[in-house]
Specification:
Length: 582
Amino acid sequence: MATYTRLGSYLLATELAADALGRVSRGLTVTGGRFERHHLIRTFSDELTDLGLPRLAEAAALADLLAGSRGYGANYHVEPGRNPFVVCDHIPGRSLAQVLAKTLEEQIPLGVEHALSVLQGMAQAVLQLHGKGARHGLLSPHSVWLSFEGSTHLLDAPFAALVEGLLPKARLLAAELAPYRPAAAAGPLQQDLYALGAILFELLTLDKLPGAGAIPEALAGATLKAAQEEGPIPPEVHTLLERLLLLGEPFASAQAFNVELEKVLYEGEYSPTTFNMAFFMHTLFREEAETDAQAMKADQGADFTPFLAAATGSARVLEGGSPNSLLKYGILGGGLVAVVIGGLLLSNMANARRNADLQAKIVALDRENAQNNARLLDLTRAQEEAKLKEAQLTKAATEGRTAEERTRAKKELEEARRKTEELARQREEALKKRQEITEKTQTIAQAIPQPAKEPAPAPQAQPAAAPAPAPAAPAPQPRAAAEPVETEAAFIRQAPVSAPRVQKRMLPPALRNGKPRVSLKVQVDEQGRPLRIIITGGVDGAFGYNEAAQNAAMASTFAPATKNGRPVKSWMTIDYEFPIPN
């Protein structure tokens, strides 16, 4: 049986990351000796604990303010005290600091698109934070949690600003964060944007940002070392870095930064996607992802009764009293407890066992879905390469210098066409498999017993602390991938979207009384094929709305945008609205 350490009402299982702030571990809760659910648990360093973290309980208020927003953890719980810690729902992944360290160790190229994908996720979270009148203040690669599925989260957002006040006394932490904090005084927004620039610089070069006086020279001579390229940082990214690092004109507002970021993300030749980042993460952490998945599956089938018994024994010793007193009160209290909760315990244990089995199936499906997504990404790339080769062979078959060259090109062209058709067939199978996995996951999720203690939703209007999961910054408007177009991409046939089978009681309170909506951007190529999808406003959680919208978009056919009468690659925006769940 695995080794666990009790921490309050949680069990610590495996340490996932360590830094100057403390540690991030996989933890879990149990009911009646059986597994209930997994969590990420942030404990704090001795340096910070000794300083007291006196206001950590205030983090719960900001966690409520961020509830339902994308780019953060979910269901935060803060346990203050002498050894405080913070808990949120489990997200399989690793910190950005670990990603950078392993990228350097394994010598795996981290491309510009990967760097921009991480920047996009961080920026969306930071902009939402400032849109709610809050700040981060402590942003660094240790703040960023990258899931194995390619998404970006700022797990320390609820408490970072509180810890920031301890930096003058926390020397070790201050030294670790020095490269991500401006030397001169800066406002809350500029400080967070500076940290974004410092992290982007490290993502591109694998070097930490030097001291303030050396930044201009370092930026001027920087190359794409992370991508294993000798070329300089692209001009549009270089200009963005200068403004973020306060070398150029600072961004006057969050909106001004968002406009400039959109230009880099959508008007250049880059297409940062979650799929690309997921493929990179699974390449970099394949063994760790498998180990984590196996350990989590083992957790779900374990019997935690010995740990509960140990915890009860510890409580008795702390309470004091003679053995006879303990026996006397134990007999009296035990009889009352047996009468009151005996039946409930049996019911909870049965539900917990069933819950564990269902959760294990969901974990297996998630792992299968990740593998299928990685295969889908490989097939998409191979299909694009095959199309390019087919075009080259077509030209060679008609314009070859000799008859022999033209004959050879025609034979190779036939083989290339067969390969293209086979890749298209395999990609269609992968898309169907993704849909099947999504439907299975939804069906299993609906069958998971709900805790009896969950309060019924209040009939009054939703509180301001639980906003709908939409970015605070305006959603990016569709732009061409490279230049303005004469006609925008449009549907030829819009595939119908299938609403997932979700019961209203399973949704977060903010979604129970309205129609779920998903907004996404689709990149359409010159042949009218959907290439990439970016969700700009979706439904957080494993409810299937985001996946249903993506599947519908990928199954649709499009007329490409045109420029000077010729088809060009471009982005278009699609909004999907789902019926109110029963």
